Amino acid sequence: MPTVTALYAGLCAILLIALASRVVLFRRSKKVGIGSGKDRLDEVRIRVHANATEYMPIALLLLLIAELNGLGILWLHILGALFLFARLLHAFGLTAGKGGYHLGRFWGTAISWTVILVLAVVDITKYFSAT
Fold it and tell me: Taking the first listed entry, what is the main subcellular location of this protein, grouped into a coarse class (predicted)?
């Protein structure tokens, strides 16, 4: 039973809904049905949410495969927690940065990519060690 992945999938889902709700609340307050209404802050909110939806599925899928293939629980938690932290850091950094530049955005992206690459290598290595 992949309980560690279940934990991080649930936490990522809550974060995703929180990010989506910021977009919805803004659109409702400005009466914007689709898009950002050319509002810079809403464009940023939309990208923060979209970026999370782009990276979360692959990271969680790789985490699930690693868990099903027996990666140790400590490593699963380290990678899952790092990924969640990275997504929070990215969301804060992109929202707080002027012109999109902020250390939170940089490190959030860098950590997300690192976790995804580490999980990819773990999963690929497992394939070759099993054959």
Answer: membrane
Asked whether residue 131 is assigned to any structural domain, the reply reads: no
Structure confidence at residue 24 (pLDDT): 83
- 3-class SS at 98? strand
62 touches 120 (CB < 8 A): yes
Residue 67 belongs to a domain with what CATH number? Answer: 1.20.120.550
Condensed to tens digits (0 to 9), the pLDDT of residues 49-92 reads: 999 999 999 999 999 999 999 999 999 999 999 999 999 999 99
Copy the structure tokens of residue 129: 């060690």
On whether the CB atoms of residues 69 and 126 are closer than 8 A, the answer is: yes
| Residues composing the chain | 131
Q: CA nearest 102: which of 92, 93, 111?
A: 93
Radius of gyration of the chain (CA): 17
- Please name which of 7, 40, 54, 45 lies closest in space to residue 23, comparing C-alpha atoms: 45
| Count of structural domains within the chain | 1
Instruction: Please choose, from the candidates 75, 55, 54, the residue with its C-alpha nearest in 3D space to the C-alpha of residue 118.
Output: 75
